[in-house]
Structures are given as structure tokens and as C-alpha cells.
Amino acid sequence: MEKLSHRQLCGIGIIIIISGILVSGGGNRSMQDAWIAAGLSLILALPLYLLYARITALYPGKGLFDIIYICFGKVVGGIITGILCLYTLQIGSMSMRIFSEFNQVVSMPQTSQVLMLIFFIVPCIYIMKKGIAVLGRVTNLVLPVIIFLIMIIYVMSLKDWNTENIMPILAEADGRFISDAFTCLVYPFGEVFLISVLFAHKKYGKKGYGVYLWALVIGGGVFVLETLRAIMVLGTHTNSILYYPSYTAAGVINIMDFFTRIEVIVSGSFFVAQILKVSLCLYVISLGLSKILNTDSGKVLIAPIAVFMTALATIIFENTISSYRFLSVYKFYAPFFQVLIPFLIWIVAEFKHRRFVSA
Amino acid sequence: MIDIVMFLLFVITLLVCEIVSGKKEDYKGSLTACLVFTVSAVAIIVITGMGIDIPGPADIIASSFLGHK
């Protein structure tokens, strides 16, 4: 079996977090407190990540789907795995559509989205056909570059910062930032449950807690800084009405009329991160389906799943506006997959593990 | 129409690649799933390409929570 190092798993977790926010930032509804909402969601994600880590720590060398089958048996385990596969299919399709919408809105308004999606999915199929170890190695290669570029943009935009833009802090007493914090918790933080599936490939050694915690610290840190940068540069009003504030905030950078149009770095990083995220989704679904179908050949399922995901991405949202409309609903039903099901798995896994230890 | 043609070309190319590179025994137990995914995908693209509106899962969920747009 192909193995993933501690660092590679952590990198994949960070990619899941930052891929969703590189162009859009977070917590736009809470105006000048959006960065506080992002920070609060980081804190709220901590117990969730400890829960995921505990589940994988109870069964070393097993992935989430293996643990589900151990805990619930073939029938109920198959149903839960199927539900999680459907949810992962939705995450993948949403990510693909967000990518194609972004491309169409900012750079290629006349190009067919189907064509963009086809070009997008081909590298994902190629990566996953080559195996999960390739995804780990690609992540290790591109993640430091993406984070370095984000930091460079951050430093370059310092001269455009206006600290007045985040004032007054917590002036709105309607608790809008708490609602935004929950939105940020489910997207992007909650989607990190996907890496629990990869723990079957984890090399023996350190426990999984470090993987989740480092992903949270680095990915969450980038998330908060990106949100803060967008507010500081654009101001609260502009930040709240734009669909891609982080991208626009990067476009403002102009250093001596020489370094301009920096936003292309943001869109490039977004593109690479989304490819890695969708590749992971493809792998998770193929692994889950091969478990349900009781077959070892998960790789042959990757191309058909990718084709279906592409078709689903064309209809999942009507347009960018409906994708944002959906986000206001997503925070209510995503916890079922991200919190409730893992919590149920943890209860049963803990019970079974204790009974095994005492026997 | 162009969307349907491009998508069919994509699916046929993938199919040829799979047939050339894959082994028959790999598909044991998963051939039906592969066919279901591929046929459903082609059906979605053909139907939407013909101008018939299929509501997406996300739109259905959003409408059921928030009411119609």
C-alpha cells in the first residue's frame, strides 16, 4: 500500500482549508468583524479536529471507511460510507463549479464552463490514476510555494492597509459574526474530515493529532490573514459586496508602477489548490465505493466518477449568486456530515475499543 | 450543442484510454458502477445541452430551506 508521511497528510489538510478561501475570503456579512468571525471559526474547529484525530488514533493504520466498517458492520457501515461518498461528491462538484464560475467571471466570460471543467478534471484524473502518493508529493511540492506567494502578496499590500477599516471592533451587537463563524466552520474547516480517510495510508509513527492541529494552525492562520487583508485594503463596504474580495484586494497592489496585476498569482494558486482538493475528493469517493462494492480495484472507478462529477458541476449551481445563496443553507445541513456522523462514529469506536482493551 | 459535442469527445477519449490501459479483471464487481456514472453524466449533459433545465442539488436544497428565489 502506498504510504503518506505525516507532513504530506498535514499539507493535504492545509490545501483543503486554503483552497476554499484563496479568492473569496470569509465572513463577509459581518463587515469589519469578518476577521474575528474567521478567528472564532478557527477556535470552534479545534474540538472538531480533536474528534477526527481521536477516531483515527483509536484504530492506527485504518482509514475512516475501515473504521466505519469495523464499528457498524457491513450493512450500516455501507450506508454511512455511501452517505459520506455522496457528500464528498457534492464537495468535489461544488469546488469544480466555484472554479469555473470564478474563471468565467474574472477572465473568460465567453468561454463555455463545460470546456473549463473538462480541462480542470483531466489533471485530477491523472494524479489519482498515478496514486495517492503522487497527490502527497505534489502537495509537498506546491504548498510551500503557495504559502510563500500568499505571504509575499500580504507584505506587498501592507502599504495599502488602512487600520480604520477594522474599526469599530465588535460594534454590531446583532451577533452576525457568530453566524459567520459557523459558516466558516463548515466551509472550509469542516471539510478537513476528508483526510481521515487517508489515515489508512499514513506511515506508522506519530499519532494523527499533529496532522489536524498543524493543518488548523497553518490553514486557519492563512484564512484569518487573508480575510484581514481584504478588509484592510478594500474597506468593509467593498469587501462585503464583492464575490472575490481577496482576489480584488491583490489586484490593488501597485509598487512603483512596475509590480502590478499581482492577482494572477492568487488565481494561479487557487487553480492548483482546487485541482488537489478535487483529486482528493475523487480518491475518497473511489475508495468508499470500492468498499461498498467489495472490490480492490478502486482506481478503475476514478474516471467514471470524474465524468459524473464534471456533469454534476454543470448543474449544481445556477450561477455565482446561487452559490452564495447556497452557502447560507450549507451551514445548517453540512454539520450532519461533518459533526454528527463523526460524533456517532467516535462514540461507537470508543465503546468498541474499550471493550477490546478490557477483554 | 457545442457543450454536448465537447463532453462526448471527452468521454470517448477517456473510454479509449481506459480500454487501452486497463485490464479486464480490474472491472470485476465495478463495471456496473462505472457504466451508471458514465451514462448518468452523459444524460445530464445531453439534457441540459438541449435546453431542458435540471435543478441542481445545491439549488434544490437552498430552495427547500429558503423558499423560491
CATH homologous superfamily (4th level) name of chain A: Amino acid/polyamine transporter I
What's the alpha carbon Rg of chain B, rounded to whole Å?
A: 16 Å
- Oligomerization state: heterodimer
The level of helicity of chain A is: over 70%
Give the overall form of chain B. Answer: flat
Mean pLDDT of chain B, as a whole number?
A: 82
Query: What's the number of domains of chain A?
Result: 1
Helix/strand structural class of chain B: mainly alpha
Main sheet overview of chain B: none
CATH architecture of chain A: Up-down Bundle
Proportion of residues in extended strands of chain A: under 5%
Largest interface here, residues on each chain? A-B, 37 and 38 residues
Element order of chain A: H for helix, E for strand: HHHHHHHHHHHH
How much of the sequence of chain B is in beta strands?
Answer: under 5%
Number of helical segments with 4 or more residues of chain B: 3
Instruction: State the end-to-end CA separation of chain A.
Output: 31 Å
Summarize the structure.
The complex is a heterodimer of chains A (359) and B (69). Chain A is an all-alpha fold and 359 residues long.
Polypeptide structure, described:
The complex is a heterodimer of chains A (359) and B (69). Chain A is built from twelve helices and no strands. Chain A is mainly alpha-helical. Chain A has a single domain (6-358), classed as Up-down Bundle (Amino acid/polyamine transporter I). In chain A, helix 4 (113-130) crosses helix 5 (132-156). Chain B has 69 residues and is mainly alpha-helical. Chain B has one domain (2-66). Chain B starts with a helix and ends with a helix.
Give the topology.
The complex is a heterodimer of chains A (359) and B (69).
Chain A: H1 6-19, H2 34-58, H3 64-106, H4 113-130, H5 132-156, H6 176-186, H7 209-234, H8 236-241, H9 245-251, H10 263-292, H11 299-316, H12 320-358
Helix pairs in contact in A: 1-5, 1-7, 1-10, 2-6, 2-7, 2-12, 3-4, 3-10, 3-11, 3-12, 4-5, 4-10, 4-11, 5-10, 6-12, 7-9, 9-10, 10-11
Chain B: H1 2-21, H2 31-49, H3 57-66
Helix pairs in contact in B: 1-2
